[in-house]
Amino acid sequence: MLIVSMGVSVDGYIADRNGHFAWSVPDDEQFRFHLEQVRGLGGCLLGRRLYETMLPWETDPSMRDDDLHAEFADAWCALPKVVFSRTLRRVDGNARLATGTLDDEVAAVLAATDKDVEIGGAGLAGEAFARGLVGELSVFRYPIVVGGGTPLLPPVADPVPLDLVETRTFGTRVIYERYRVLHDERRLAP
To answer: Which residues, 6 or more positions from 161, have their beta carbon under 8 angstroms from its beta carbon?
Structure first.
């Protein structure tokens, strides 16, 4: 299934008004959790900004400064990625530029694996969510209010019912929430 997974402030933003998200840097406990999540994926669809943020894991040897970071870099490098961009002409690492519509690319990546696929980047993930392509939403809720910025999700035309299927609180008091999208109930929502 297609999964949206992002860090978010208590007031619902993935970045503050200046585009900063340093408040969401994971500690080792949470980083290990992210590593296991990446290892379980069969692919990733990314917007340009997220692709550029994550590219150093494939290209910068200094990202492998300890065993944990080296393991993450190995897992990230092995993961096939599709990048959506109107400005990039080429991508590096284990990535390709999207050539089809969002619906077509999601279908192709899901068909190429028997594992879950993650979609990231606020605009891209929000579009997939609004189009009903997302099966799960994973949120890492950070104990901070940033007062504005880039919202986790855009406004939707209809309510999207969710089922909370997992929670976990990390030592840093970050709360992980995993929701399954209830597609059948969405059609019945008022």
So the answer is: 181, 182, 185, 186, 189
**Is residue 138 within 8 Å of residue 177, measured between CB atoms?**
yes
Q: How many residues does the chain have?
A: 190
Q: At what angle do helices 28-39 and 67-78 cross, to 10 degrees?
A: 30
The rounded distance, in Å, linking the Cα atoms of 130 and 21 is 24
Q: What is the pLDDT along the chain (190 residues), one digit of tens a residue?
A: 999 999 999 999 999 999 888 888 899 999 999 999 999 999 999 999 999 999 999 999 999 999 999 999 999 999 999 999 999 999 999 999 999 999 999 999 999 999 999 999 888 998 998 889 999 999 999 999 999 999 998 888 888 899 999 999 999 999 999 999 997 754 444 4
47 and 85 Cβ atoms separated by less than 8 Å: yes
Report the C-alpha gap between 133 and 119 in whole angstroms. Answer: 10
Cross-strand pairs, 160: none
Residues 6+ apart with CB under 8 A from 100: 108
* Residue with the two structure tokens 């340009």: 48
